[in-house]
Amino acid sequence: MLRVSAGLAASLLLSLAIGGIAEADEELTVYRSFAEFGEPLYPDDFPHFDYVNPDAPKGGEVTLGGFGTFETLNTIVLGGQWPLGIGLTSDTLMTGSSDELASHYPLIAEHVAVPDDLSYAVFTIDARARFHDGHPITAEDFKFAYDTIMDNGRPFLRAFFEDITGATVVSEREIRFDFQTTDAWKSVALAASMQPLPVHYWQEEGRDVKQSFLEPPLADGPYRIVSVDPGSSITYERAEDYWAADLPVNVGQYNFDRITYEYYRDDDALFAAFISGDIDFRLEYRSQRWATGYDFPAVEEGEVVQEALPDNTPQGIQAYVLNTRHPQFEDIRVRQALTQLFDFEWTRKNLFYGNYTRTRSYFPNSDFGVGDFGPPEGQELAFLEPFRDQLPPELFTEVWEPPVTDGSGNIRPQLDEANRLFAEAGWEISDGVLIHAESGEPFTIEFTLIAADATERIVQAFARNLERAGIQVSIRAVDTAQYERIVNEFDYDIISVRSNFFPPPGPEQRSYWGSAAADTVGSANWAGIRNPVVDALVEEVVAARDIETLKAANRALDRVLLWNYYMIPQFHQAEAWVAYWDVFERPDRLPHYSTGFPDTWWFETGSGAQQTQR
Questions:
Q1: Which pLDDT does position 606 carry in this prediction?
Q2: Phi, psi of 567 (to 5 degrees)
Q3: What is the bridge-based pairing of β-strands 304-310 and 575-581?
């Protein structure tokens, strides 16, 4: 029997019932939905998510903007940036809601069966599941996807699935995943996020899933790719024969007939396209523009709506990454000194128009970072105590805080502290230049960023302060394709990044901070961190079996990362700035962790962007 509620799991004796894969007398429990911790918000029989309009009309074409370019449609292998919106073309075994961080509901899989120790999971594929060519989605397609990722996938992508030790085809509609870590719903959730790769398509002559490509591949999601202008634009069309359109997780969503992304190499040109009506909706990231740029006639006349929407999404850190693979950043005192020279208060006042909050955690806007918590105590302290002799003593008595200036631009106290730290690390000023006391080599820093990126003005302000300390600073601006290669190969001194955060945290943290990832091309360990304490705490995060233990372990990890000064935290905000031409409607209630666009929005009845907005 199937599980009928989130709270009461129905035990199902499946000895040899699931294709003979379960051992005799092994009892499996079948779940239609599950949460990594606690219970799912929505019951098994929910008709649709609460943040959708189940009667939303379908139709119209929306045009969105992208900055930079794209080189490939292959999201699996390393090499080349893929286009925005590509996720619209493919589904997963199970999917979450935007009201929760870690619940999973039926999509391609109609349910999942697990033993008590969660050492493996067997997903049963919905008999109706189809690719866009009408071919059934089978267990072989998921095994092929898993094998492709583990054999040829990007290092960061592989890191997500490394806790899965194998995928086994049980029957045409049943796929089993075995896990290295037991008693953890996180492992089941990772398997539930697997997307299929159509074996019958990729086995055709001339096709190679391991290579970059720009020919739209066969997919299975709510949209299909219908037009590609390499590097310039891509158009997705709603699949009229999408088999899962009426599933509860999809009701009221994917309402636009066509979604086109037009790419611009210059951010100002992208904004100009929005003003002229060529772009229908935009998320704004520049505080200066948000404060002063939306004074054009269409806003004043009510044709363009400008809104600040709440953003409760846990965020990854945005920071200057110090590449510790380079010798000038090896000494922690140097990293501390550089942190002294980033004047956030002046930057906020003069460049951000008073917006943004200074980031004090690697996991801001979440319960998984240090946040406003005091010094470590309880379970968090217990995680840190075994490493006391390897950690700064301040970590146990103080909360990490970045240096604070008065915002005037006078950073004499911070400059004096930076000079003291540089001197302790073996650097001295000679004729206004910071040089190494033994080698006489000057201290140099090269910032690498994307050409025409709005962050350049922030980098320039930081660079001026570094130059006041005698550091020779240069800025290398490259296109997006070059930037990706440079970042993948760790060929930089300092870059500015905003990491993605996939709550609740799990095995992907190894790729961000783990020693094994430090020299893995394409990993997310941008700083080159090799720290056995970090490694140990990451494993505590992965091994956590309840949410409070997970939070404590991750906060302990957060403290160690902060106190080692691998990055210089920048800023974040708890709202999303959106602007759009007034041709859209949306549900009365937004999802808790999203603006809902474009998934749950729709065009006003009888209108289309090209017909009514200009």
A1: 60
A2: -135, 160
A3: antiparallel
Can you give the pLDDT at residue 12? 42
- pLDDT number for residue 8: 34
- Judging by beta carbons within 10 Å of its beta carbon (0-12, 13-18, 19+), is residue 477 exposed, middle or buried? middle
Q: Across all residues in the chain, what is the average pLDDT?
A: 92
329, 306: one domain: no
| pTM, 2 dp | 0.87
Query: Within this chain, do residues 495 and 599 fall inside the same structural domain, yes or no?
Result: no
Domain count of the chain? 3
Label the pairing between strands 472-478 and 444-450.
parallel
CA–CA dist 399, 568 (Å, integer): 16
Is cis: bond before 375, omega within 30 of 0? no
Same domain, 416 and 565: yes
Domain of 503 in residue numbering reads as 318-572
- Residue 568's Cβ-count burial label (10 Å; 0-12, 13-18, 19+) is buried
Residue 58 falls within a domain, yes or no?
no
Q: What is the mean pLDDT of residues 468-478?
A: 96
CB 356: neighbour CB atoms within 10 A? Answer: 18
Closest CA to 214 of 228, 226, 202: 228
Q: Is the pLDDT of residue 20 over 80?
A: no
Say if residue 335 is in the same domain as residue 407.
yes
Region 589-606 average pLDDT: 92
Verify that 479 and 502 share a domain, yes or no. yes
Question: 């239609």: which residue's tokens?
Answer: 32
Q: How far is CA 501 from CA 182, 240, 508, 580, in A?
A: 23, 33, 9, 27
Q: What is the CA radius of gyration of the chain?
A: 25
With 0-12 / 13-18 / 19 or more C-beta atoms within 10 angstroms meaning exposed / middle / buried, residue 547 is: middle
Q: 582 and 561 in one domain? A: no
Q: What pLDDT, in 10s, does the model give residues 31-87?
A: 999 999 999 999 999 999 999 999 999 999 999 999 999 999 999 999 889 999 999
483 part of a folded domain: yes
For residue 544, is it within any domain?
yes
Residues 562 and 596 in one domain: no
pLDDT band at 22 (very low <50, low <70, confident <90, very high): low
Is the confidence at residue 343, as pLDDT, over 50? yes
Alpha carbon distances (Å) from 484 to 212, 444, 524, 528: 15, 23, 12, 17
pLDDT at 332 over 90: yes
CA distances (Å), origin 319, targets 211, 256, 333, 364, 446: 32, 36, 18, 12, 16
SS3 content of the chain, % helix, strand, coil (to 5): 30, 20, 50
Angle between helices 332-340 and 412-424 (to 10 degrees): 170
Spatial separation of the C-alpha atoms in residues 397 and 170, rounded to whole Å:
54
Give the mean pLDDT of 488-499: 96
**Domain presence at residue 208:** no
Q: Are residues 506 and 393 in the same domain?
A: yes
